[in-house]
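Local shape tokens:
==================
===
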Amino acid sequence: MLQTDGEPLTPSDRIIKTVAHTRDVPRTDLPPLYDALDPEAIDDFVTTAEEGSQLQFEYFGTSVSVSVRESGVGIDVTRTGRH
């Protein structure tokens, strides 16, 4: 799990950080993640899903893919150009 100032980032926090970086905007400029998908549901998915499971959704002009891997959680963000 990524950490910031000693605090671990949840998967939903990592998504926000990655989307902000991909879109080159401050995190505070992003709409609430729950407009796309419930952040708690994302975090629950990561902790309960079997290895190989994947979740995909669109958020703020990006396609977000969350996958549960043997090595940990993978978060891939691709710009879709729709925002």
In short: The chain has one domain: 3-79.
